[in-house]
Design brief:
single chain, about 400 residues, alpha/beta, D-Maltodextrin-Binding Protein, domain 2, 2 domains, eleven-stranded mixed sheet, 16 helices, globular
């Protein structure tokens, strides 16, 4: 799949399937949360104070741990209908657009699209402001995720999990540290470089490679601005520098040695290093793409303010947020969960990919929102280069 956070790999494993299986194989993150002692803040809620009612949630596959799905109804008294059938942003939009447009309820109160799709839903009026007045834990949101580009007023979304894009490499294969986007074009690595099929991630690094600054990208990019980056990528692809464009099958290419380095997602590499200690991840000196996020939205036809607020509060409790982060290997949108995660997995709590230093954060830039005409031209041009 293109244009979302979970492109399907050639191996048939979704990105989240790979992470889940990788964690299980490592004997750690997927299983450890169920051993966590103690109870979340919700456990202290009086029986008589439980919210009750029902909430229907549409999410991505392998994006929530089993304990949370069991504990949330128990702690809140809310009946949960949980679906993991959101597997592509464009497919989701096509499936429900007519119902949205007709103000027909789609069967879910909460949906979790990627940021650029969330921006589209906001613009079209298909989602409503979140019931933050009924939520106690919103203040736990990481400061850098407040009032993001896809939701400038911060009214309509809260992040579910976040990540960023840089370069993964095998130090044994490269023979040196990778520090720059120019390393992706170094003839030394001809035929051993991978790029992502996801346009926004790859184009951020391609734009930086042509001399555009992070500030210029953040201010907005037109199709004409991007032409040099498209041309450079095309030349690298046709000349053999780029071995191929992939979904998350790049994890197999890295492990097999087919790729010496590639454009990669932070969460993947956090898991891969458990299997191959020679693998490393860097946000280049010029910058990387981030934070991207899958975000929670409340559909316009939902009437379940209290239940939605209870769902948000539950997962913005640091104990629950840490458990989910440990399961997914994504970066939690909740601040200061290191201690809670350390109780689950001490190594994960010290992983600088999951908890990047400030100098790394300072090098990240969000790919800007595109107007509809430019978005179509970007997608078409990128497909020409990638063969998509």
């Amino acid at each position: 799949m293109s244009n979302d956070r979970t492109p399907q790999p050639k191996s048939g494993l979704s990105r989240r399937e790979f992470l889940t299986r990788g964690a299980a194989a490592a004997g750690g993150l997927a299983a450890a949360p169920y051993l966590l002692g103690g109870s979340p803040a919700w456990a202290a809620v009086d029986e008589g104070a439980k919210v009750g009612g029902k909430v229907d949630v549409l999410n991505w596959t392998f994006y929530i741990d089993k304990k949370s799905k069991k504990d949330f109804p128990k702690q809140t008294g809310i009946k949960l209908k949980y679906s993991e059938t959101l597997d592509d942003n464009n497919t989701f939009f096509a499936k429900y657009q007519e119902q949205f447009a007709n103000d027909d309820h789609i069967g879910f109160d909460i949906v979790t699209p990627t940021t650029w799709m969330a921006a589209r839903l906001i613009e079209l009026g298909y989602v409503q402001p979140m019931p933050f007045d009924l939520m106690e834990n919103r203040g736990n949101l990481r400061a850098e995720l407040e009032n993001p580009a896809w939701d400038p007023t911060g009214e309509y979304t809260v992040p579910w999990q976040t990540g960023y894009t840089g370069i993964a490499y095998n130090i044994e294969a490269t023979g040196r540290e990778i520090t720059s986007v120019e390393d992706l074009f170094d003839p030394k690595f001809e035929g051993r470089v991978g790029w992502l099929l996801e346009m926004r991630d790859s184009m951020t690094l391609a734009l930086l490679s042509t001399g555009m600054t992070r500030e210029e990208i953040a201010a907005g990019v037109t199709f004409n601005d991007a032409k040099p980056a498209f041309d450079r990528l095309e030349k690298a692809a046709q000349g053999g520098q780029i071995r191929r464009f992939t979904g998350n099958s790049y994890v197999s290419d890295l492990l097999s040695g087919d790729f010496a380095l590639n454009v990669a997602w932070s969460g993947d590499v956090a898991q891969l290093t458990l299997e191959e200690p020679n693998l490393r991840f860097v946000v280049p000196d010029e910058g990387g793409h981030g934070f991207w996020a899958d975000v929670m939205c409340m559909v316009s036809t939902s009437k379940r303010d209290k239940q939605v607020a209870a769902w948000l509060d539950y997962f913005y409790d640091p104990v629950n947020a840490a458990r989910v982060a440990g399961y997914t290997s994504y970066i939690s949108p909740v601040a200061d969960i290191e201690d809670e995660l350390a109780a689950i997995d001490p190594d994960a709590a010290e992983n600088t990919i999951l908890f990047p230093e400030q100098d790394v954060l300072d090098r990240l830039v969000q790919f800007p929102l595109l107007d509809p005409d430019d978005e179509e031209r970007f997608d078409e041009r990128y497909a020409e280069i990638t063969g998509g």
